[in-house]
Design brief:
Layout (H helix, E strand, L loop, with lengths): L1 H18 L4 H6 L8 H8 L4 H6 L4 H16 L8 H8 L4 H35 L3 H9 L1 H5 L4 H5 L17 H14 L5 H16 L4 H19 L5 H15 L4 H11 L1
Helix pairs in contact: 5-7, 6-7, 7-8, 8-11, 11-13, 12-13, 13-14, 13-15, 14-15
Length: 268
Amino acid sequence: QHMDSTLRYIHNDSDLSTSSSFSPEEERKSKVQDVVPQALLDQYLSMTDPSRAQTVDTEIAKHCAYSLPGVALTLGRQNWHCLKDTYETLASDMQWKVRRTLAFSIHELAVILGDQLTAGDLVPVFNGFLKDLDEVRIGVLKHLHDFLKLLHVDKRREYLYQLQEFLVTDNSRNWRFRAELAEQLILLLDLYSARDIYDYLRPIAFSLCADKVSSVRWISYKLVSEMVKKLYLASTPTFVVDLMNELVEKFCRCHKWSGRQTFVFICQ
């Protein structure tokens, strides 16, 4: 009965607002929608209240973050304004587990929201995650290609300067981080021009080929071979010639046997 009266009050209030003197901006900021019962949505949005964590469940914010893409999909992008504040609150939550949950799903949310809302509301959050703890950064790294392919070309190019930062981790023993970077770079080859690949991705690939961990090196060999293919098919042949000359100089003529072995594996 309480929920019914609340819903009746909210919907009547929203009906009145259309004929009253509310500005479009004020209406946009309201949390009212007509897809699901408003009281249900209000309960969900209240999960970010710190008092709930103390009285209900210490991990309630994490559960809220986990469900957010599903809620966004249900409400539709036209009702994103209902969730935007909650999303930003969760993205700055003190618990890294909450931020990590959002980092792993930000690419899914980008598909739901479309390019305009993604550029305006998700890109700043994405940039924040890139500078976060490794536990959070791995979330955006695992789906880096999925997220960047949704951005406009100019915006996508801005991240070329930051890819190098993924080589640095809080713990140098975290080799899976570098292995994931190599996997993502293979996918990213399709998103960038031959010049961008040569100027930005090539130095990272060569660095990964000399990694201390063999699993990282094996994926990097595949990355370099895919890079050769990509540059070979480009309209400018100089990039692939320079790349192959560098491969010969760095690995084929290396004074260490491991370097020469690397050259053989890349050729294979």
